[in-house]
Amino acid sequence: MKSNSEKEALEAFLHENAELEQLEEFVGDFNIFSALDIVNNEKRHSNFLSWLMNPKESHGLGDYFLISFLKNISFKASSLGMEGPSIFDRDSWNLDDAEILKEWRNIDILIRCDNQKFICVIENKIHSKEHSEQLRRYKDIIKREYPDYKKLFVYLTVEGDIPSESEYMPLSYSDIVPLIEHIIGSKKNKLGSEILAFISHYKEMLRRYVMKDSEIQEICRKVYKRHKKALDLIFEYKPDKLLEIHDCLMDLIQKDPDLILEDSSKSFIRFIPKNLDFIPKEGSGWTPKIKRILLFELNNNPNSVDLYLIIGPGPQKIRKKLYDIARKNLSLFNKSNRPLSKQWFTLYKKSMLKSKEYEDKEVEEIRKFLEEKLKNSRVWICPKLKMKLKNLVSTAYNMVYAVRYVH
Length: 407
Known about the structure:
This protein is of the alpha+beta class and about 400 residues long. It has two domains: about 30-210, no CATH class; about 240-405. Helices cover about 50% and strands about 15% of the residues. The chain has 16 helices and ten strands. It has helices at about 5-15, 20-30, 30-35, 40-55, 65-80, 85-90, 135-145, 175-185, 195-210, 215-225, 230-235, 240-255, 315-325, 355-360, 365-375, 385-405; strands at about 100-105, 105-115, 120-125, 150-155, 170, 260, 270-275, 295-300, 305-310, 345-355. It has a five-stranded mixed beta sheet with strand order 1-2-3-4-5, with helices on both faces. It has a five-stranded antiparallel beta sheet with strand order 6-7-8-9-10. A hairpin with a 2-residue loop joins strand 1 and strand 2 (about 105-115). Helix 5 runs antiparallel to helix 8 (about 175-185), helix 8 packs antiparallel against helix 9 and helix 13 (about 315-325) packs antiparallel against helix 16. The longest helix is centred in the C-terminal third of the chain and has 24 residues, at about 385-405. It starts with a helix and ends with a helix.
């Protein structure tokens, strides 16, 4: 029999719960994609995007969406210093003859424009990860089959995850939604009612279910935080352990006076110790506010938590100096024994929470476990790493500004 406090928690949950009513309204609204249970189906997302990109399809948009998409990724690729056709090239192209291929050589979406000698690979992930070096394999196939074509490689994920291959540009579904909203706003008078409804349903499905901090996710978080006890009684387990651990990590970093929290997501929590925050802030394409080049990143996986130290995009002189010093300390910077990539490069990796610990512990236990690690002589930023990193940063800083002063 339930205790009085548990009954009271259930009563509070059921009585005048505004967020729950709002959630029920969202779920109650008809959406063809959620009705068909394809919200998390990567192949169905790829099929829809392929249909929208294809100038020959029945939507009546011609190459409008395809051009908008390619302009967007061209601009982003240019800002990251990646090779490929410029946005000006795209603006002059007629893509009516473009071919959009699905699952060609297992590539999710392939855009091929023979007249322009251009090809674009899109690998699409919703809630899965890379496997079997697939990005490298696809890149090698394209370079072998189309050696003279201009190329772009895109890694499309919910949160814009960093790909393992540096030639791939990270893209999030947050970049896709504005393109679709623009179509709805600018072409609604030219589209048939059924096509407009179909595209609108897809846009709403992305906003509510798929995107980082989607409407439904945000409401669920509010409901769960306010009525945690009642929901634990109903479901007998927490509905989203990944999100709870994310909140724990964010809270630990925000409350630590020696750490600076950077741009983060559900899967990636980025930060830098204050006493190491003196690299020239000239990064690009990574952190939107303060353009740091070097950051720690906690990778919040479904069954583990790992700590990384990553060089992001930015001036090559700074990146190269950081890389060179790390290469001289391979016993410490344990991931530096590889060629320096153009965009993101991991210097260091440490397992914070292994899969057995993740499975065996409840979220509150995990919080205490991680908090203890933080308090216990900075196990995740050990003194030796701290000292080497400070020397590394100081040397890079002095080198860059000495060069500027001379010139």
